[in-house]
């Protein structure tokens, strides 16, 4: 799925650098996976909580929460805000759309009207990105959209994702970090991990970060969690080695 609002994750990670690797692991997990429904998503991430148009992703064992709106048709996750556990447990996140305009506010607005109120221009810097995301928040809060409103939202999403893909990068994360996210989600014990990772020694090494996942472990993890290989591997791991041409004997 495509995560829109990546700057919010980056900024939150800068403020909470001790647990930042878990944030990057969550991003790699959700951005490399396609879920067709809330039910299928909950099979991978059982701790997720849905409320109306919102979904609360549990990160780092509940230390952090990514409050989002998930569009399963467009395969997009709109990251609305990041919260610490102490803020998320109050349940106030369930009300973040309460002040948003309702669908009637936009019912009579054409695509041109919407562009007139907030022009669709290329984003030049992070401040302009945050302004565009504030506009996006208003629109994704509306569940019943006119065709013009949906078209406008789609184009605004494209403009935001274009800037974020070009200008914002998150630190690389190991497949073992992604695996630790899934282990916490499924409450797997060390004994349950041994068939997955090969032995007690290998399991301990992966969990403490001293050993990366090998291809056999990746294959088993993909089968167990029903996820694609790119969830656990960096893109360069898929680049085939080009054999050197054999020297011709003269």
Structural class from helices and strands?
A: alpha+beta
Please give the domain count.
Answer: 2
Total beta-strand segments: 5
Q: Which stretches are poorly predicted, pLDDT < 50 over at least 5 residues?
A: 235-243
Summed over residues and divided by their number, the pLDDT gives a mean of: 90
Large-scale geometry: elongated
The N- and C-terminal alpha carbons lie at a distance of: 54 Å
Number of helices: 12
What proportion strand? Answer: 5-15%
Describe the structure.
The protein has about 250 residues and is α+β, with helices and mostly antiparallel strands. The chain is about 50% helix and about 10% strand. The chain folds into two domains: about 1-165, no CATH class; about 175-235, Orthogonal Bundle (434 Repressor (Amino-terminal Domain)). It has a five-stranded mixed beta sheet. A hairpin with a 4-residue loop joins strand 4 (about 65-70) and strand 5 (about 75-85). Helix 7 (about 125-140) runs antiparallel to helix 8 (about 145-165).
């Amino acid at each position: 799925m495509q995560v829109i609002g990546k700057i919010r994750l980056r900024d939150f990670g800068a403020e909470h650098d001790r647990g930042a690797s878990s944030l990057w692991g969550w991003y790699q997990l959700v951005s490399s996976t396609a879920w067709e429904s809330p039910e299928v998503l909950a099979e991978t991430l059982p701790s997720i909580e849905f409320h109306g148009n919102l979904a609360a992703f549990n990160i780092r064992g509940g230390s952090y929460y990514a409050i989002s709106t998930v569009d399963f048709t467009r395969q997009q996750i709109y990251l609305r805000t990041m919260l610490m556990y102490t803020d998320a447990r109050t349940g106030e996140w369930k009300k973040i759309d309460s002040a948003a305009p309702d669908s009637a506010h936009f019912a009579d607005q054409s695509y041109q009207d919407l562009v007139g109120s907030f022009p669709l221009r290329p984003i030049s810097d992070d401040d302009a990105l945050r302004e565009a995301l504030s506009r996006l928040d208003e629109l994704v809060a509306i569940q019943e959209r006119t065709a013009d409103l949906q078209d406008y939202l789609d184009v605004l999403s494209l403009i935001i994702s274009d800037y974020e893909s070009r200008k914002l990068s998150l630190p690389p994360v190991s497949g073992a970090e992604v695996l630790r996210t899934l282990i916490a989600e499924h409450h797997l014990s060390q004994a349950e991990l041994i068939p997955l990772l090969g032995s007690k020694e290998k399991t301990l090494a992966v969990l403490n970060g001293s050993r990366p996942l090998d291809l056999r472990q990746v294959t088993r993890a993909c089968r167990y969690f029903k996820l694609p290989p790119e969830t656990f591997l960096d893109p360069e791991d898929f680049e085939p080695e080009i054999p050197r041409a054999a020297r011709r004997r003269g």
